[in-house]
Amino acid sequence: MSFFSDERAAELRQLFFESAQELLQALNDQGLQLEQHPGDTEIVRGIRRTVHTLKGDSAACGYRELSELSHTLEDVLTPEMAAAKGNALAEIVLSAADMFDAMLAAYRGNLQPPDGDPLRKMVAELLASPNANSSADFKPRFEWSEYDRARMNDAINRGRPVYSVAVCVDPQCPMRGAALQLIQNVLQQAGTVLAQHPEDATPNTMPDVMEFAVATSLPPQTLEQKLHIPAVVSRVVIALWEPVAAILEDEDDEDSETEQDVLGITESEPTPLATGTNLEAKQSVTKRPSTSTNGSDTLRVDAERIDAVMNLVGELIIGKSMLYQSISEFGRRFPKDPLRTQLLDTMAQQSQVLNALQRSVMKIRMVPVDQLFRRFPRLVRDTAKACGKDIVMTVSGADTDLDKGILDALAEPLAHLVRNAADHGIETPQERIAAGKQAQGIIRLNAYHQANHVVLEVTDDGRGLNIERVVAKAIENGVITAEQASRLNDAEKAELVFESGVTTAERVTEISGRGVGMDVVRNTLARLKGTITIDSAPGVGTTFRLTLPLTLAIIKALLFRVGTRIFAVPLSSVIEITRATEQSVHIVDNAEVLRLREQLITLVRVSELVPGGQGTSNKFFIVIVGLGDRKFGLVVNRLVGEEELVIKAIQDNLVSTELVSGASILGDGTVVLILNLTAVVERLGRMRLSPAAQTPVKAEGIGASA
Amino acid sequence: MEQFTPLVRSKDQRPIRYLVVDDSIFARKNLAKMIESFGGQVAGEAGDGCTAIAEYTRTQPDIVLMDITMPQMEGIEAAERIVRQSPDARIVMVSSVGYQENIIAALQKGARHFVQKPVKPEVLYEVVKYVLGDSAAASAAQAAAGVTP
After folding, report:
1. Is residue B29 one of the residues assigned to a domain?
2. Chain A residues close to B123, C-beta within 8 Å
3. What is the interface pTM, i.e. ipTM, of the complex?
4. Pairing between strand B17-21 and B63-67?
């Protein structure tokens, strides 16, 4: 490293960290693939390439420990090993991904990297285990698909015994395709081949071990004899296939064995790793949107640079509205001046270009949600394994684009929801079967655009939220009173899950299976100007729906005046605006409500946040906003208009309130505060629910601090 | 050449009869030598597919060793025709590694096994034993068992 200048070396290291992160992701993906298809030599080769690249890169950056550990791992990544011990190898690959991750985190923080011995030990054990390198000790998986099982059951019902057969192709046999053909010939002669794994084996992709399900009336000894084809097959394993029960037990035993191995490793450094990764992800700069390794058409750019451009575009937009104001002023003074139309034309063209510019810059910041989603298969797998469940994760809409900043901030909340779904939502296989469901639970991640928003959904087909118990617990913990609870509808009851009630969190988890960190999830969403809703049906499953703005930097906002101040709310959350008078406001259950087309809407007096905000007029506007499924009415004195606002973050020491999510400058230089609707509604809404909280809120009003 | 426990026909304890098909005389001689070391007997030889079919009908061998590439008629076609005539025919394809496609085709058309060139006697011996299955036996064992029937 010393022959580079410090700056150059730092740049190189930065580059290394970026690519290493991608390599680790690839390693995780491949490890999971290998677990699905143990013995697939192509996957093993892929893993080997990944590890090899990591080895080379880390060595070039002088990260000796990582490089050496990769080298150790490379040793066992052979097709033979995969054929012999595919499952164990997959475990090692996944553990290695964790270990490498921890090492990278340490390097990044200039710390001593963790000791790689646990991994070395795993590798050594794998190598030392008897016959690891020969095909003599291969372990058939005998996992047939549902369709296959149906066919097998069918054959049994017709009175023919079914055998699971695994044959190990002689490593000396160079003609794999011919070997496969011959094995198939022999099996077809002996009986009926019901299934084959891998299904699509071709001469080129044929693995060393082939598995078949065969229905035959031949005694197993004869079948075995026939399958010992000289010069083609080196080993045969035959097992009588029995429907379900017996087989399941057998597999369980094997699983628990390997599971213990894993626990031994992960125990040493479990959770800190996960958070480390998330932090890194937040700091790391824009990643390539696709996993493809050919980078000829992609450009890696530091996210900060894009943010700088975005900021400048923001300034331009402010400049635009200032210019507009000046032009309209000019027009008022000199209505006949031909210069006026000329100015307006130029202005129109200018703003078109500006819009296009803004869109392009925003597009640069967009990355597919796949970057986030792809972390979860591993999470689901680990959680499922830890609690003995069978869970499959499906993803749709992974190519939906979302602002990089939002995506990064979502990593933790989404992981929380996914983990919850796997841990608490999905039942154990036994419970599921008892409930008449398939033993395998499904967690679905979905992303799609909806108007100006992106919606992310985490769905499980588990037991659903036990709303009654959530309510009971909320009452017990004083979040609401029983009387209030009786007036809540189901959606509102479900939302109690998000109530922080710090001390209640733990216990809410125990009874409902949800709760820890749920308030964190909601707070993150609120910070991102998003909302979260729950759909849950007992026994059917739960869907968490996260709705997020496309970008945080620029919003369309509705401006209104309360007292002397101008506030803004995102236009996307405004449902409608209506006029009202004091006479039309009713008090129901301690809260002011407005009756609008047979619907009661809770009112929120924004004026309470501003000293002297109460207007003298008894006529006012009500801005009806939607938060998730619920509607609230903001009482405002006067509407100002609709404007594109460039959000400027407010430093915390200036305005120490969560009620405001940002500020912006209007064309005439007026500062507008953008209300954080979730916080405002919660604060003022809570005030209604528990009158005791009223005083502190007032003391903390916006007007006081601004 | 290494000697093997002679293989004989189970039904009459007579030597196994082979039909050797290859366009190269050298290859045929080579195979004949091996057959001899297995205790077998070359019932007929052919240098092309057409002759092979005629020879099969004439000699009714226990097993055929068939080359893939030959003039006039390829081994695959010859094998296919022989099997069509006599479904019980036991044909072992003999070929170089490069002809995997052809071997697969031959296997699909009824050939029972394949060995690759250069043929190793111990491999061929095992293959022959496998292909003949119950109809052949190592003579010593057979001698002991052969008392009863």
Report:
1. yes
2. 230-231
3. 0.86
4. parallel
